User: Fold this.
Amino acid sequence: MEAYAVIETGGKQYRVEKGDVLTVERLTADEGKEVNLDQVVALSNGSDLSVGTPTVKGATVKAKVVEHLRGSKLVSFKKKRRKGYKRKIGHRQELTKLEIVSLGAAEKKAKAAEAKDEGGENDGA
Assistant:
């Protein structure tokens, strides 16, 4: 199984793996720059899963900003029949396309969890 993380950005949660490309709400970073996404809700190295309360401490996901773009146009239209009332408004969401470079602390958290489990067994004996 692959290592993955569940990150939160823009009020939404995304399950990501290394090499994934995803579109999220607009971030302030410039194109080509790397950003650290530190709102990691869950982190897995393939065998162990760490779930945060609410986030996993020390875990970060590094992503590269591929491009800034705008989403497709959404049209909101209101009408009240027989009253001559019509309102039309459009919206295009500002988006950022990210490529996941690395799942930071995935290996560290797994090793720490293993060491903690081994240490806990030895303390009880």
Observations:
- DSSP finds one helix and ten strands in the chain.
- Residues 4-117 form one domain.
